[in-house]
Structures are given as structure tokens and as C-alpha cells.
Hints:
The protein is an alpha/beta fold. It is built from nine helices and twelve strands. It has a six-stranded parallel sheet. A two-stranded parallel ribbon has the order 1-2.
Amino acid sequence: MKMYDNHTHLRQHLDPAPPHLLKPVLESAESKGVIAGIREHAPLPEKLMNSRLADFGVTIYDRELGHFFMQFQELDYPVGFELDFVSGLEDETKNILKSLIEESDRRGLKVSGIHGSMHFLPAGKDCDGLPGLDAGYVSWDLDEDVFRAYIERKSPEQFLHAYFGSILDLTKMGIYDALSHLELARKFDRVGANGKSVYFGECEKLYDELARGAIEAVCEAGMVLELNTAGLFSDLGRPYLSEALAKYALELEVPICLGSDAHRPQDIGAGFETAEKMLADIGVKNVIGFNKGNREEIPINKSNQN
């Protein structure tokens, strides 16, 4: 039975950044019986591309676009992007996407999907010294020390309102097919000695309320909600979509897709058996695969339901 991994990348977060390589990704996916949905990090608004953030090797620079697109042409494979939402830079973000779509069309390439993500939050004077401040934003999820400092200078409650508020705004853009890793806010989270979340233990009720509101917004926008398995391999130890939130999505009839967020070919499809079992246990029958831009319902692998 075929399965789609709707969130894969062509290179790792390394310095210096390696080239984007499509062929090894497709070979690994084929060996696993998985259809790889490429969601490469799209170029960012100019002020962020020109900032002093250390992780921009993962983002496509203009100088790399020719080689990037050429590989998809040579292998006749659909292209796709993970496009960041950046509050206050919505128009420039729309123009970036427009340019990518036009270039794909010019090269005769299908676009399998556009996933929205949220990695940047506005920064003020209280964020002095944090990466990205020169551009007016903090890239809060690159390093736990940065995340901790940001939380301490704001508050867990302020962070959650800003994070989920940006996701609400993302869903209103009308340009995204799916929302990636809704719970990326818990990237560095884990259970402390007191049995509570080390970052949100005192505001779990607020977290749940805002997360459910974000799922309602995804529903309203007609988008797909991604269950991202990368969380299984973090300290969190579960997908970036909890069973409780997946149940809420099911209640609202929000379609769910699976994505590994793999940045290495060998990680494609990682954690999918666990994810499928979790979804099957709560009553989800099908997940979405993006086939050249069209949604395809894929029955959950029954062998993982036992």
C-alpha cells in the first residue's frame, strides 16, 4: 500500500550548507515504498535573508534556484515548498510564492503542495542579543538556549499567544495547502521532575485552548493539518500533534497528512508506523497524500493497527 511522506527536504542543516540533492531522496523513498512530497524551505523575505542568522543554509538562496529546479525537470518530479509565515511581511511572502509558482510553470513542473510554517516571531528591545534581531525577528526554534532566553524575556503565555496568533494569521493568507507541525512550539519541551512540561506546565490550559483554536482556523481555511513525526525523535517523544489534538481535528473533520520533516534521505517515513497506529486508535481511517497538487485519500495501513 502506498504512503505519502508529505514533508521532506533535500539537505541537512549543516554549515557550510550542502547542495540540494533530489535523486538520493527519491531513491530512499522508493526503497521504503513511500512517495516523497518535497517541501523545501522557500526563500524568505529580503530582510531575513540578509540577517545574521546562522541557519540560513537550509533556505534556498536565489543563486541556488536554477540547480534546484533543474533536478526536478531532469527527473520529471513535482516540486513543493515549505513557506514561512512572517508577521508583517505577508505581501512579500505572497510575491515569493508567486515567483516560485511562475518558475515552476515555466519549467513545466507540477507543484505538489505548499505547506505553511512559523519559525519567526517579532522581536523587540527585550530580545537584544538573540539571533535575527537585526531583522526585527527572532528565529526561536533553532537552539534551545535561544528559545529559553526568548521565553524568559517574554513569558510562556506571551510566547503562546504570539505563536498561535501567527498561525491564525497564516491560515487567513489563502495560499497554503497544509499547516506544518502545529506543535513545533514544543520542540524543546519535555516532562520535568514534577511531571509537568518544563516550559508550559503552568499554562497547559491556555496551550490547549490556543492549539484547538488553531485547528479550528485550519478547518475554516479548508487546509490540511500535518502530523509531523519529527517530534518522536526529540525530547518530546511524540509527534508534533498530540492524540488529543488529533481527536479534535477528527471531530472537526479536518483532514490529516503525515510528514517526517526528513532532512536526510534515510529519515524519510521515519515514525510513520507509530503515527498510523495512533491515528487508527482514535478512529482516523484515511490520511491525505498530495499527488501533484491534488489531495488523495490514503487508507491507514491496517498492518499497523494491531
